[in-house]
Amino acid sequence: MTYEPPPNGFRTFIIVWITQSISVFGTALTFFSVNIWLTQTLYSLPEQKPQLAFALSAISLAFALPVVFGAPLAGAWVDRHDRKRTMLTMDYLSGTLSLVLMALMLSGNLQFWMLILLIVGFASAGAFHNAAFDTSYAMIVPEKQLPRANGMMQTIWSLSGILSPMIAATLIALPALAQQAGLTTGIGGVIAGLENGTPLAIFIDAITFFIAATTLIFLYIPSPVRTDLGEKGGKPKKSIRADVREGALYIWHRRPLLWLLGTFAVANFVSGPMGVFQPLIVKFNLAPDWTARGFTFETALALLATLGAVGGVVGGVFISAWGGLKKRRVLGVVIPLIISGISLMLFGLSTTLYLTAAMVLVETAMIPIMNSHSQTIWQTQTPRELQGRVFSVRRLIAQFTWPLSTVLAGWLGGLFNPGHVMAVLGLILTVFCIGQLFNPYLMQVEDKEYLERLAAAQSAD
Fold first, then answer.
1. Whole-model pTM?
2. Which domains, from first to last, does the chain contain?
3. Using one digit for the tens of pLDDT, what is the confidence trace for 346-371?
4. Residues 108-140, buried b or exposed e (16+ Cβ, 10 A)?
């Protein structure tokens, strides 16, 4: 029986998309502020480059590990439970964690290990939230509008990032500005009493989580009904472990899907170090150029982050308006990845702020295009009631290289020129993806009949 989304489902998607975009904006404020705190306060001296590289790597790992390795559990969970309730709970939990982080900063009791634990909490909540969200909008959006919805989803992260770096930099500077203005009473006096404005950014983040959660209360977001968990009121016949195994076997029996994931695994290995290397490249490789142009470290880093977000929005708006390829969508994945690889090579080799920023813009513009095509392939190839399990294993396979490369980045960033390392990684991605254009298995990833024949043959063995 063909599934029909609820009436006004796309309107519901728009409301969720807007509120989640606001929440992502708040989160971007927090993570940008934390990077500034690490780079300019905790490890501000040039001789502390190895410690800074380690700290940035540790923060990235604290976020990556729960997202990647918690994905199978989260996917199995959302296939068993109400997805709307899961999103709502995780939004409230994340908002509470933001308030805890803010309180620790204001009291002066925040230590690096506490920050790591809080990041792990944010990431764990995000893993369950994203698993529920990624599988929910396929339930409310008609199939013909999925490519457009996927493009809009890909735009969230970039749209929120356009203003958040500059706003975060401004918030951080507010106490110093208030002190210079001689403010001593009211809100101005409270702000002037802060050491820096990072707690303000985190407070805004908490508010955005609570707004997103409260909005969900008033929306109808259905979850698929599973028929394999026992009779009504009975004990489920399948364990969560069995659910994870089922998701893994679905992919394993359809090897072209595995090749698609392998391509993203390589891409994530290459892009994983960006969170570690970008602040290092700005602080060390580009310092002569941005200093000569009158920038500070904060504004130079904010410029890269903002233009990266602009690139993502451009790519997202483009794919949302276009709707993507209707056939041979795999080319919409591989070709943008080749362009990304070339831009990463130039990013690593550049010694000027503006060329580096331009390459960041190009690279991030490719992300919504490739991800939207990939997501549409998966949504059209995977039954809705299986998507939580399959998508979570998919995330694990595609992203397990991200923590690995992040660990290496923390080591390599302290020993070598991070720009040169990034250029080599870009070259690897470019060469690999050109080779994938001639991979006959990957090129058949959209042939559903072929995939099902492979699955039937594998199951018979």
1. 0.70
2. 9-221+240-460 (1.20.1250.20)
3. 999 999 999 999 999 999 999 989 98
4. eebeeeebbebbbbbbbbbbbbbbbbbbbbbbb
